[in-house]
């Protein structure tokens, strides 16, 4: 609600008074809205969950060709606390475990050389490593309990072309990141909407969705796809690979590479006792969801993907 209160005079003082009360009214309206809409805080864990029917619709993505493949759903149980992109050579805390598909050797000691020589869970020979925090059941956002790891029932990898023009090959060892493990303490606009349900894939939320019976809980990681053409990584792990504009066009000075999407599905948890692993200050907030990749797709396979995305040939 906006209140226009003040003098009816036409002088400068009257205009200032009306402007002053207009600003006050707007601020009061914003405060009222903040009180009505539940916001995530460690003391309000219930605000971390939302019925999927109340989640907003995701912006429509421009039409583009797609190449889809599978690397399993981590049947091998490949999990550890390493983060090859953010902290290579450093073991992470035990309360922040990552789940992997693809390269079977990814660990705290991994290097480009060891990854290139390792086996993979991908039948097509893709040696890239793809990973994200594990989901646990029996724990709730904001609580200190430590639940059981929920095993994915399906993981799908998809590369999309660019609607604005051809894509170039993703270079070997390019690092990619989406989301941020610290976004629970950042402004809401910085959160990544990774969560949805299998029956409503057009709705996305940065809160944990409560899915209807018969549906699966789904995480969708859409990576940036505009490469600066020089670096394989950057200090913040994001400046070298950025997101395209809404129409799919890359910023000047960058080149479109295949846009990666990782979709991870789980059996529907009962109620709201589920949350991802996170660092203690973040209290398992859903907004801290994130994922990484390190590209080691063989040259011939990458050429096949690029050909599919640019010409439509060989996409099956």
Structural write-up:
- This protein has 316 residues and is α+β, with helices and mostly antiparallel strands.
- The chain folds into two domains: 1-37; 40-311, no CATH class.
- It is built from three helices and 18 strands.
- The protein has helices at residues 12-36, 112-116, 299-311; strands at 49-51, 66-69, 79-80, 98-102, 129-133, 135-137, 148-149, 154-160, 175-179, 195-197, 208-210, 217-222, 226-227, 241-242, 255-256, 259-266, 274-276, 290-294.
- Strands 2-8-16-12-10 form a five-stranded antiparallel beta sheet. The chain has a five-stranded antiparallel beta sheet with strand order 3-4-5-18-9, with no helix packed on it. It has a three-stranded antiparallel beta sheet with strand order 7-6-17, with no helix packed on it.
- The longest helix is centred in the first third of the chain and has 25 residues, at 12-36.
- The relative contact order is 0.20.
- The model is unreliable at 1-40 (pLDDT under 50).
